[in-house]
Amino acid sequence: MAPQINPSILSADFARLADEAKAVAGADWLHVDVMDNHFVPNLTLGVPVVESLARATDTPLDCHLMIEAPDRWAPQYVEAGAGSVTFHVEAAAAPVRLAREIRAKGARASMALRPATPIEPYEDLLPELDMLLIMTVEPGFGGQAFLDIMLPKIRRTRELISKHGLELWLQVDGGVSASTIERCADAGADVFVAGSAVYGAEDPAEAVRALRNRAAAATGKASWACDH
Question: Where are the beta strands (DSSP E) in 23-124?
């Protein structure tokens, strides 16, 4: 799969979300960070904004739920128009059941892990998912510095995906920029969330293209990609 770039609207102008979505029309997905001020110490947006944004853009929405009780709320984001819904395994009461419910409603099911959460205990859950998100910063705020110590975890996750022969996307979120995206791609990531690196650029659309090109070049040389 070609690398995908998902600009995070957390770094966009919330008063102009429709325009900000159009500014990155060449992106693969729009990444929507939903925070409840409980699971993470920040409050962003919810179902009504996702509904409005889904009507305002043709770019599919990738909703990342940094919230408590995702088992209750995640299905509502599918109904609101999200094409992919990510829940945190640390917050989910029944992750397999939730992933199946998200899929049954017609969206891609994704599970996220905070930096301190290991992947190994969840190996058996991977076939239930369409994407796994490795957080490369602590969730809650945009603009944080990339955590290099997450690279081995990305590699181990890619090895598990390959071990089981899964068509599972591997997303990274946090501090992804022109200076870090190649390391993430080399380690095994193929979906990249970028906030400040896109919306902080003079030309967000060009920033998306440049990030995708960097990721593609690194993937072409990566050992994990050569094995496919």
Answer: 30-35, 61-66, 84-88, 108-113
